[in-house]
Amino acid sequence: MTPKRRILIVGGGTAGWLTAAYLAKALKLAERPHLEVTLLESPDISSVGVGEGTFPTIRTTLQYLGIDESAFIRATSATLKQGIRFVDWAHAPDGRRQHSFFHPFEAPFFAEDLNLVPYWLLQDPAARAPFAEAMTLQARVAAAHRAPRRAGEAPYTAPLNYAYHFDAIKLARLLAERAAQLGVQHVQGTVSAVTLDDQGVIGHIDTDRAQRFEADLYIDCSGFRAELIGRALGSPFTSARGQLFADRALACKVPLGDEAVMESCTIATAHEAGWLWEIGLNGARGVGCVYSSSHVSDERAAEILHRYCGAGHEDLPLRSIPFAPGYREQQWVKNCVAVGLSAGFLEPLEATGLVLIEAAVGMIAEMLPHSGPMHAPARRFNELMTARFENIINFLKLHYCLSQRPEPFWRDNADPATIPERLAGLLEEWRLRPPGRFDFVLDTETFAFFNYQYILYGMGFATDLSAGRDDFPRADEAAKVFAKIQRYADRAVADLPAHRALIQQINAGR
Ligand SMILES: Cc1cc2nc3c(=O)[nH]c(=O)nc-3n(C[C@H](O)[C@H](O)[C@H](O)COP(=O)(O)OP(=O)(O)OC[C@H]3O[C@@H](n4cnc5c(N)ncnc54)[C@H](O)[C@@H]3O)c2cc1C
């Protein structure tokens, strides 16, 4: 008979419930009586969950879990996200112009045997279309507040790649329901003691309600408190503060009027010492100010946020969320693995929180030993997660270090001493060639070479191909493809529904 195996998940935020539901599904919990998955959640400690943006991978995850897309959109006040519009990142606004660029989810248009990027780079910078607009129709679709899909489309599919904005607390509730259907047990209680045996392995966990839990694998989803991986096991924290300076966020919700436009992208607006996020939820805008406490006071950050929210919103209550950018290199230690904020968090730019949870839980499900010691996958898991975090640090830093803004926060960000060596090396190479697929090892990346292209060329980075101009003799063909992309964009803007109309239709159950 197969011996009983128990998994205890501590924490009921998005990380805890996503992990619970995913493992229950992947391990076919309902059909395996020898497996037990329990989620322990404190009723007294709140989770971080704000209005959040995600990555397209969430569609595959939700579909895998058997969650109906329309039900998900209704339950979590979700809207559709086609990418991020960056405002004022390259230059500070000077009254006459406001610089912005779009980072879409769609990859650049792929023309058989013809890479368009060099041809865009060789065009006159003063006359050419912005990179994202030239390369994909999604930039114009999002700018026109259109949805990436029509109402009749099969669930989770669309002509254009997309993700969602949603209320993370509501998502955790929905995932909890699904996890229960898949056989996960739910217990309330706050961890009061974690007992290690003489090998430093977690022996059992006690709660304030006098419950005791013993498990083969403990999954720490207790958020920034990191009850198991940090407090009990002392897994060291690697700070990223030397590269990424933001360490605080202020968050609020602004009611959305019935007539207001509903954006189908996140808006990330730079300010003197960080940036502001704005995401459209159904019925509200989630707005937040991310900043470096070394460069600006909490009072000034609140002022920046209130000013952004506009007149009449000066009294909106703000929630303060301090965080330490960084991660643990040892996220799997003996019989404990950390998922979510307990494993690490860099900052919300590019919405990498949930995608890292998806990556971790996918690996746990695949690598979980069927027999033998629970720590067997630890080394590989830790290597892969470390690489992911380091690569995300590079990608986030790219947004900051290319800015021409004059404020101390931005000048410090451009200081070469704060730019990771690998990124600095790539930037050097990209002066003479665009990012390509062999720059990255895909299994440890969250972002592909074209994501780097969107940020680089959106920020005004120059890749100079002029010395090799003769290597690119197909400019006429490329011009035809560029024109075709614009025709497709015209058609898409005309054919796709307004984002607000689609969300209303889904919420009305049509
Ligand atoms: C300002 C900000 C903005 C963000 N924006 C985004 C975004 O746009 N997109 C994105 O993908 N990610 C974003 N994230 C990250 C995202 O919020 C998290 O990755 C995600 O919500 C997972 O959080 P979590 O479940 O690990 O932690 P939490 O949400 O903090 O949940 C922790 C859980 O552990 C429980 N717990 C804690 N201590 C104990 C204890 N002693 N005993 C029992 N239970 C305990 C709590 O009750 C809670 O249920 C953002 C994060 C921050 C801080």
Molecular structure report:
By secondary structure, this protein is α+β, with helices and mostly antiparallel strands. The protein has a domain at 5-77 and 164-240 and 326-388: FAD/NAD(P)-binding domain, CATH 3.50.50. It has helices at 14-26, 57-64, 69-75, 117-121, 131-135, 138-143, 168-181, 227-232, 298-309, 353-367, 378-401, 408-414, 421-430, 449-458, 475-495, 499-507; strands at 5-10, 35-41, 51-53, 79-81, 83-87, 100-104, 163-167, 185-188, 191-196, 202-207, 212-213, 217-220, 237-239, 248-255, 266-271, 274-281, 284-291, 319-322, 326-328, 332-333, 336-338, 344-345. The strands form five sheets. It has a seven-stranded mixed sheet. Strand 1, helix 1 (14-26) and strand 2 (35-41) form a beta-alpha-beta unit. The longest helix is centred in the C-terminal third of the chain and has 24 residues, at 378-401. The chain starts with a strand and ends with a helix. The mean pLDDT is 94. Residues 10-16, 40-42, 45, 47-50, 52-54, 168, 190-191, 221-223, 225, 227, 249, 321, 323, 340-342, 348, 351, 353-354 line the site of flavin-adenine dinucleotide.
Features:
510 residues; alpha+beta; FAD/NAD(P)-binding domain; 7-stranded mixed β-sheet; 6-stranded mixed β-sheet; binds flavin-adenine dinucleotide
Mean pLDDT: 94
Q: Considering DSSP H and I runs of 4 or more, what fraction of the residues is helical?
A: 25-40%
Q: Give the overall form.
A: globular
Distance between the termini: 50 Å
CATH homolog superfamily of the domain at 5-77 and 164-240 and 326-388:
FAD/NAD(P)-binding domain
Q: Looking across the biggest beta sheet, what order are the strands in?
A: 6-5-15-16-17-14-18
User: What is the class of the domain at 5-77 and 164-240 and 326-388 in the CATH system?
Assistant: Alpha Beta
Provide the low-confidence segments as ranges: none
User: What is the number of beta strands?
Assistant: 22
Strand content: 15-25%
Bound molecules: flavin-adenine dinucleotide
Total helical segments? 16
Per CATH, the architecture of the domain at 5-77 and 164-240 and 326-388 is 3-Layer(bba) Sandwich
Structural class: alpha+beta
